[in-house]
Amino acid sequence: MALTFSNLQLQEFVHRWRQGVQPWGDFADFRKFSAPKALAPAGRRILKNVDRFRSNYVFVVLFVIAFAILTSPLLLVAVAISLGASYAILLKSPDKRIILAGHELSQSQQFGLVGVMTIILFWFLGTGSIVFWIIGLSIVLILGHAAALSVEDDLIRPVELHGATEIV
After folding, report:
1. How far apart are CA 92 and CA 87, in angstroms?
2. pLDDT digits (tens, 9 = 90+) for 70-124
3. Burial category of 98 from C-beta neighbours within 10 Å (exposed 0-12, middle 13-18, buried 19 and up)
4. Residue 159: strand pairing partners
5. pTM for this entry
6. Element (H, E) at 10
7. Closest CA to 60 of 146, 127, 118, 126
């Protein structure tokens, strides 16, 4: 089974993603930043903020990737080689197979081979650590933002004390 996307499907995906972007003023409203008082509110904040700002966080990850590429040209070379090989496979028809060392490879096997070769290329160029740096920094930025940005539930919530309900 081949994975294919039409141009219309891609445009529709990008359109839905861009519609999900919340106002940047809400995303970076530093007046709403505070340390959570306990682990439970932090978890609730993370879940709500990741759901609400999902598209904004994609921009954060793209910014981190762009920064990494600008500061490491070898990563740019490795990604360009990988994308170029993948694009060359896509240009051929899906039923077009290649023969490598006497074995016939399907399109999905060719993509798998490109993936393995990309990992090896990352290792030889020393860009593997940069990829993990991107992943780690993205996780820290997203979880840090999501945990620090208070949600409406944090501001007003009922607390039951000895049978009486009090608004905190």
Report:
1. 9
2. 888 888 888 889 999 999 888 876 677 777 788 888 888 889 999 999 989 888 8
3. middle
4. 166
5. 0.63
6. helix 7-19
7. 146
